[in-house]
Design goal:
- There is one protein chain.
- The chain contains 9 helices and 11 strands.
- By secondary structure, the protein is an alpha+beta fold.
- It has helices at residues 2-21, 27-80, 93-104, 147-150, 210-218, 256-263, 279-292, 367-375, 393-503; strands at residues 110-120, 123-127, 168-177, 180-196, 199-204, 223-227, 307-313, 317-320, 354-357, 362-366, 379-386.
- The protein has a 6-stranded antiparallel barrel with strand order 1-2-5-4-3-6. The chain has a 3-stranded antiparallel sheet with strand order 10-7-11, with helices on one face. A two-stranded antiparallel sheet has the order 8-9.
- Among the domains are: 2-80; 107-136 and 156-227, Elongation Factor Tu (Ef-tu), domain 3 (Beta Barrel).
């Protein structure tokens, strides 16, 4: 309306000006000015139309561009998840793909549902899963044919899965639950001795443990899983299905029953105190608790290398995660010295070579990295987190088997030494018994000796008293003799003097 009002006012003004100036202008001037006025307004009308249509197109373009941006954002969230969400949805395409790649990297080939068709001494025959059995001897099942061959469809083609003789494989016994057949117990490391169209024969590469021998012979595991490489350990492999990352469980809530079942441990040990347990039960409790506490608050006494830190970014920060160099993991590992990926399978590519964090984002770092970033005032520490050290299960099983073998050998040596000790103890006990008998006799002799000593002492005392009395008597008698002698001498002297006086001579 305003535009049309301006148009009307402009037209009225033009007519008024034409009327005022027509006397001075000629007819030609008036016609030319009128034509110019009409052309200008036609140009303005066409320009207005173009602008109007352009505005419509621009508006439609903006609307479509917004829809495209929203659609691209939705597709990006479906593909990679919400990058600004501190607790991202791991069900997106890229996280699930990365998890699948992580599960499959270095895993090698896997044959599930391998049926055990025969168990001989130190050797097992397996029909690999998803392979039609080969009928080697088409005889009546009642005459001793193998069950797998008896149930095989006629004319089933033989399929070669690529496994060859001398291949080292890791075998697990399978158990069935609502999710299907899953590996539940490690039966050992085996070598393929024969491979023929899906039927293989395997034997252990070393002496199996008593538990593995019992599990194989029990018949509880009619189907096995065959792994070309030992599965890798991870922090989220034991999380309960459907659990999500939380501040108190960054890897999700751990499934107690599944972990206890896989480790063959009593779930009650998860809350058991170390005091009052045997050494074996205490070790089991510590192992179970380490799996359950993975990603949670670190318990008291946790080693510093297992304590990570959940941090919050105070400012935007970008980390380069891909190294410039590229090599295979067998040439020096998956990462370089600074922790950047060098294995092509782990690299994020040119678009993802750098990871950016926004202010307020939270993530878990090791203590060293968090300390370095904290000194730069890039992050602040939120809470410590316990991170379980990942296990190399292939090495762990070999080490456990080695320790069990060494323990058995030590047990035999200890039993032999115990037998020798018991033999020596018997001899010592016999010597002690003989010594006790001798001591008893000596005690009796000693008692008799004491009695005799008392008698001898009493007699010695009596004799001493007698000697003393006799000595006193002898001394008195001697004194009497001395006195009598003196008297005799005096009388002899008097008598001599009397004789000398009478005889006139000296009488000595």
């Amino acid at each position: 309306m305003i535009v049309w009002l301006v148009v009307v006012l402009t037209l009225a003004l033009f007519i008024w000006m034409m009327v005022k100036s027509v006397k001075e202008w000629g007819a030609l001037h008036a016609v030319l000015v009128s034509l110019m006025f009409i052309q200008v307004w036609c140009f303005l009308f066409f320009t207005a139309g173009v602008a109007s249509r352009r505005n419509g197109y621009v508006k439609a373009y903006d609307t479509l561009r917004k829809k495209v941006a929203d659609r691209e954002r939705e597709l990006d969230q479906v593909r990679t998840g919400d990058k600004l969400n501190p607790n991202p949805d791991l069900d997106s395409y890229v996280p699930v793909t990365k998890q699948l790649e992580r599960l499959s990297v270095e895993r090698g080939r896997v044959w599930r549902g391998a049926n055990v068709t025969g168990l001989a001494q130190n050797e097992a025959t397996l029909q690999l899963g998803m392979v039609a059995p080969v009928i080697l001897n088409p005889v009546d099942p009642g005459e001793g044919a193998a069950p797998a061959a008896a149930n095989a469809p006629a004319g089933a083609p033989a399929v070669d899965l690529g496994i060859t003789a001398q291949t080292i494989v890791h075998v697990f016994g399978e158990s069935s639950d609502q999710r299907g057949l899953l590996p539940s117990i490690y039966l050992g490391e085996f070598v393929v001795t024969e491979a023929n169209a899906g039927i293989i024969k395997v034997k252990p590469t070393s002496v199996l443990t008593a538990e593995q021998i019992a599990a194989i012979g029990s018949g509880r595991f009619p189907s096995w899983s065959v792994y070309e490489l030992m599965p890798l350990d991870s922090h989220d492999a034991f999380a309960a299905e459907g659990s999500k990352s939380e501040d108190t469980a960054i890897f999700g809530r751990m499934d107690l029953n599944e972990i206890a079942n896989l480790l063959s441990i009593d779930p009650a040990l998860a809350t058991a105190e170390p005091t009052g347990l045997s050494v074996k039960e205490a070790i089991k409790a510590r192992v179970l608790q380490s799996y359950l506490n993975d990603g949670a608050r670190p318990p008291e006494g946790t080693p510093p290398e297992q304590v990570y830190v959940q941090v919050e970014f105070l400012k935007d920060y970008t980390i380069e995660v891909d190294a410039q160099e590229q090599r295979n993991a067998t040439e020096g590992g998956f990462y370089d010295l600074s922790g950047r990926s060098v294995d092509a399978r782990l690299k994020r590519g040119e678009d993802g070579a750098k990871v950016s964090f926004k202010q307020g984002d939270r993530i878990v770092f090791d203590s060293s990295t968090s300390n370095d970033l904290g000194k730069q005032d890039i992050i602040k520490i939120v809470t410590p987190v316990f991170v379980r050290s990942l296990n190399d299960y292939e090495y762990a099983f070999r080490e456990v088997r080695r320790q069990i073998t060494a323990a058995l050998q030590d047990a035999v040596l200890i039993q032999r030494e115990l037998a020798e000790m018991q033999k020596s103890q018997g001899i010592a006990d016999n010597q002690v018994r003989l010594g006790q008998d001798e001591r008893s006799k000596l005690d009796k002799d000693f008692a008799q000796y004491k009695k005799e000593l008392d008698v001898i002492g009493a007699e010695a005392t009596r004799l001493g008293e007698t000697v003393q009395t006799t000595r006193s008597e002898i001394s008195a008698t001697f004194k009497q003799i001395q006195a009598l002698r003196d008297q005799i001498v005096m009388k002899q002297k008097a008598l001599s003097e009397s004789i000398n006086a009478l005889s006139g001579a000296t009488n000595p």
